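Let us work through a complete example step by step.
Step 1: write down the sequence.
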Amino acid sequence: MIPSHAGPTARTVATGVLVAVAVGASMLALTSVVVPGDWTRAGLVGVVLVTATTTTARVLTERRARTGRRATDHGSVLPTLAGAVVAAWYALARYGGPTSDLDPVVTPGHLARAVSRLGEAGEITRSEVAPVTGTLPIALLAVGGTLLVLLLADALAGGLRRPAAAGIPLLALWGPPLVLTGEVPWPVFVVTVTALLLLLTVDGPAGARRRPTGERPPPAVRRAERARAVVTAGTALVVALTAGALGGASSALPGAAGGWYRAFTTTGDTIRLAEDLDILSNLTARSGATVLRYSADPEVEVGPLRSYTASAFDGRRWQRGEERDGQPFEPAEVLWPEDPPAAAATHELDLTVGELRDDKLPLPIDPRTVETTGSWRYDPVRDEVVGSLTDRGDTYTSQVHARDLSADALRDAGTGSTDPAFTEVPDSAHAEEIAATAREVVGDAATPFDQTVALQRWLRDPGRFTYSTSLPRGGTGDPVWDFLQHRTGYCVQYATTMVVMARSLGIPTRLAVGYLPGERTGETEWQITGQDSHAWPEVYFAGTGWVRFEPTPAQQTGAAPEYTVDRSGAAVPAPADDVRATDRPAPETEAPTEQPTSAPPAVAGGTVDEGVPGWVWAVTATLVTALVAAVLVLVARRRRDAADLDPERAWQQVLATIESGGLRLPPATTLRSAPATIATQVGERTGTPLDDSVLDDLGALAAAAEQSRYARTPRTPEPGRLAELTATVTTDLRHRLGRAR
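Step 2: predict the structure and record it as tokens.
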């Protein structure tokens, strides 16, 4: 709350403090996606250090500008550069050392470790679940990003005097929680918005004239300005609180929670696999957060729970297209795309939601009923239950109608007629070679079922393929063909390769994504974590529907589906002898000693094994470009100010010069009387009168300022003459007053 008659130093400090408050509060919005810890304290300390640096540097440079030959309302680039140096030092000293301790002496090794940790942070953000732990890489990303945002906001508000634009960089801190959780904590919203609104009251628009230092308005004006500042501050707080309350109320409305932010993302809290799976991305460590708990008959094999399906594969990513609304259903209604086949048996699942924020319910892959609360609808095209956003503690019940999935029944069923999209193969340079490999693998298998089982057994053979969360580099441009050469990957590579190979044989196949059954925690209790997320292929059989197959190795997924194994324990039928997609031997990749189950791969990202991921470079380049642009604008404004000297600016330089010498004009002094008053004060201070030529030039500057302010058609000196007069007067005054000290 800074009245308009406050001095420039007070305004500069207030601007820095308000920007710091807005950025610090916005940084705390990240605590909904990064577990709070040491990084929050480190981030706030960094904000204070950088703000103190930029504010101090700006006060000093602006004071020097006011007492120098040129006075300008625009800040120097030096405060922003000084803040950038301190921010870089702090980030490297805090997160570039060999340990988590602050290491004040920064070396090139700190920079190398920081770059490496940014790469690790990129991998974690693509594969971890939210909220992630604030490890060194994640802390570096959060704190370093916060300091970059602070520099941009400070340059806009303090340097360019564009306080209204200072909120734009804050979107970089609000974006992750908005995209992943659909909300920002209301205290963060209130504090940030209040600080930004108050920032508008600190300074006028760029180019606006400031009241000369020492010129105090009458008491009535000062009281009015203070009242206006109080009203503005109160209004800012009321607006922020009201908006926060409305936002909280709207989130409680049925069907409103989480709805708006789906325009930005199709995933929940990244607990499950993303809907645009990128089969080129590596996997790193995943969270063990509990997604679901359920109870079931201990004698029943529950099998995977499916969240969604995908049919469109462009050669690298799986796409789902537009969201579908579905149709209402009754609790007793059996949900199935067609007439449900005869059930061999039924069993019931009681499920409780844990750390899962999703608009799709994980359900068994057999026909089922669903009894739940909320606005849920059934999409028979994709066989999904969609609608409300799940939340911790939500419960739902599913009565499962198990199908008769015997090998003989599936062999006799055939695939029937389906949408051509389920047999569509990406047009790649190696499509024919993939199809030829598929034909070799299935050999003499006569039916689609036998062919699919042959593909499954071939891919599951640990003597041929190696499960690993680190992908070797491929060089052909076709990820499926690359996988068939290096034969190393995880569930997404196995499932996608089987889908493409099966489709090349004309077998309708799609990708399913969900969760493995999880771990038993009691006689009838089970627990599913983020590490159980999984992808598998499904094949369509007439009269039966979509049937699951499992090409991912047994050590990650357990036994293959029972209907694909004969009574002797061997998969049926036996595939052809070992088939290699290339004559070159497959690389020997040692499987990890402890392999977690398949988990969420990244969404669209850069190529693998490139160190720092592409998106990190893109975001960093954008922020750096914006910062450089701000610096260039500041430089351009300084040059323009020097070139476009007008009478008002010239007179302000004169006033700044005498103020630096300890003199000050009385508030009632007019422009016509100012030269004589200045001459009298200088004479009293120095003991010698002003030269007549200097006094004449001073009178010319005062007359030019008077013409500029009040004349209908001002007649002022040319810019060159004006600059000459200003230089003569300020140089003489500075020399005289300096000697007098």
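Step 3: interpret the result. The radius of gyration is 35 Å.
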